[in-house]
Amino acid sequence: MGGASPSFPSTRPSFVAGMGSPAPAERARAAEVLVRAYWKPVYKYVRLRFQKANEEAKDLTQGFLSQALEKDWLTRFDARRGSFRSFLRLSVEGFVANEEKARGRAKRGGGRSPLALDFDTAEGELSGLEPPAPESVEAWFEAEWRRGLFAAALAELERVLAERGQSARAEVFRRYDLADDGAARPTYAELGRELGLDESAVTNHLSAARRTLREILLARLREETASEEEFRAELRALLGGSWT
Fold first, then answer.
1. Residue 102 within any structural domain of the chain
2. How far apart are CA 10 and CA 57, in angstroms?
């Protein structure tokens, strides 16, 4: 997407560092990133891994995230011992086990206002999903986070291009790179005829949109990973060794 780059973006520092910041605004930003990036994988993991009903999975997800934000458990994370998502997944498992031992505890964060999470959308995504085999649920948790990362980056790309008034660029990217079926993907010449552009303009729009998406994706990846090592490992997993 857009060619190699000799450096990585330095904006959007990791949310893990932000959670321990003395600045309230930075802590709030970090909390927003944590919830935004991980609430849906956590909810779906609870539903599938523990076979919880919809309402109980909502309660557990709300309770887990509330505890994560209130009790500074992120300070226990050690990047030398594994990835943040492994730490997060094990933390979810421990939380669910503890909740099952104390079912009389107040639900959804112990009485605090619940987080605004779109559970209906997450449940709709699960409804058409073939449940993963028990032995593959952990890998599925990782894949679900990556899927969410790409989806969020694509949504941000749409917003950025709309704000810039680059509707033709957005349409070229949407029609070519997001085509559902590779066999139905139009050629550059066909796109140009349909959109009133010459073929070189189609090529330029597509290249520019891919560069913007790459910038967005790398910035989000850096923000949502816990260390430089994890950032680079995820970069290799997502985009291949040539990007590192």
1. yes
2. 36
Please report, for residues 148, 184, 185, 193, the alpha-carbon distance to residue 178 in angstroms, rounded to integers and kept in the order given. 16, 11, 9, 19
**What's residue 76's pLDDT?**
79
Residue 135, CB-side half-sphere exposure with 13 Å CA sphere: 0
Dihedral sign, CA of 65, 67, 72, 78? negative
Residue 64 to residues 31, 143, 172, 207, 210: CA-CA distances in angstroms? 13, 21, 42, 42, 36
Does residue 9 sit within a domain?
no
The DSSP H or E segment spanning 34 is helix 24-49
Which structural domain, as residue segments, surrounds residue 118? Answer: 15-243
* Count: domains in the chain: 1
**pTM of the predicted model, to two decimals?**
0.79
Whole-angstrom distance, CA of residue 176 vs CA of residue 188? 8
The answer to whether residue 7 sits within a structural domain is no
Could you tell me if 59 and 70 are in contact, meaning their C-beta atoms sit under 8 angstroms apart? no
Backbone angles phi, psi at 28, to 5 degrees: -65, -40
Q: Nearest 5 degrees, angle CA 17-CA 29-CA 70?
A: 75
DSSP state of 131: P
Residue 229: its pLDDT value, please? Answer: 86
Q: Is 154 exposed, middle or buried (0-12, 13-18, 19+ CB in 10 A)?
A: middle
pLDDT, tens digit, for every residue of 45-67? 999 999 899 999 999 999 999 98
